[in-house]
Amino acid sequence: MWTYVLPRRLFTCTVIRTLCVASCRLKLPAAVNLPLLETLSITAPHYDSGRSIQRLISSCPRLIDLTLEAIYRLKRVSVLDKRLRRFALRCCHNLKSVDIDASELRSLDYCGTVPAESLLSLHGLRGVPSCTVDFCIALSQEAEFTRFRGFMEKISDAKYLHLHNRSLESMFFLGFPSFSSLTRLVLQGPLDSCGIVVSVGRILEQTPNLEILSLCMEERVKDTQDQYGTMGEEYEDDVVEKEKDGESDDLFVAPDEFTVPDEASFSMPCLRHRVNEINMVHYVGDETQRMMARLLFRNALVLERMCVVLVKGTFELQSKLKNEIDSWVVADVEKIFL
């Protein structure tokens, strides 16, 4: 298979400040000299050993931003001789240990399995203000639950958290640690069961100072369009039937293993006293999303701004969804529908 090999003179360029390489071979020269390099991103290199990657990192004395992604030969990384401000580790599944000086770390981006305690050593960590966490393999075992809690506790001083929850079962949020400093939270993943709604509530209970909540609701499995049409045709029929029969919109059918949360259960301190902005992206208006929106907006007493991004649909259906959400908002807010 043909592989592009980077020119060796690239690694002795004394003026370069940013280097991003992907899907090629590094093939480092005997001497690497990158005295001004501050940002380094390496993605899926071909045939390069972990030792070469480490040597490249060690040859960048001014490095402050490091991204390592899909490097399958990488077993160990050490960045103790420089103070990173941003570190991203994505899908390096064979990695055994990472040691970094985290005394000035401002941003941590992790994607992979739930890391063992020995994997990620953040020396001098005083709290990472911004964290993005994505567990790309579904979690279910009790041992993973323990590691999940341990990892989340390690970053619990964060002020901004972007958590991909598509691979997390609801049980993982039973022991969700307190994030007392968190002011901005992004939850990304399918909102397709009552259990996920309950899990969001458990997270909100542990974020007393939250100010901005964003839900990026990913699409369901591929049968979504068959079930809901372009934007919930089944729901559109349901709205019409309820208007005819006078049926309450507050009635939802939940899976047997979960009890539908009522509004009182979502009356958390952060919603009543702190949250001033709520964003919901990819709103199709199915029962679970409607439940989530109703519980949030009816309890957000100091809300100042809300934004709901509707998926593509007819004007009539979008108007119905907009009016329904309007009826749940209790605060005097700036309303944005896209």
TrEMBL record:
SUPFAM superfamilies: RNI-like. It comes from the Eukaryota. Residues 5-111 form the F-box/LRR-repeat protein 15/At3g58940/PEG3-like LRR domain. This is F-box/LRR-repeat protein 15/At3g58940/PEG3-like LRR domain-containing protein. It comes from Aegilops tauschii subsp. strangulata (Goatgrass).
